[in-house]
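A quick word before the example. In earlier lectures we treated sequence and structure as two separate objects. From today on, think of them as two lines of the same record. Here is PDE8A phosphodiesterase written that way.
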Amino acid sequence: ESIKTVLRSPENRILIKRMLIKCADISNPCRPIEQCIEWAGRISEEYFAQTDEERRQGLPVVMPVFDRNTCSIPKSQLSFIDYFIIDMFDAWDAFADLPNLMEHLNNNIKYWKGLDGRNLRVLRPPPE
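And the structure line, produced from the sequence above:
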């Protein structure tokens, strides 16, 4: 009933649509683990290439943490999750009840923390 009340206002509907678009844009940590890892790798590679190109051209480096020789992908993922994802998706979950997304988020946090706890900087642990 409270959702119906919120949806009666055109301004609220617009706000909810904007929230959905933003959540969809940054939702990688809420995907199943294999998709999350794949896209974390793609995004990291894009940022590494940007940093490489900025250095090659003598430009200021916008994201110095994305130096491919020193970057910890698990740390970068955990920072992103802490800064952007947790509060946004907690709020969205309280509004729309999204247990699957929240379960994926929790699994992904555990995965990245596991790699970080082993001081690994890569997407996947080495084969045993």
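Notice the following. The chain has five helices and no strands. We will return to this example when we discuss secondary structure assignment.
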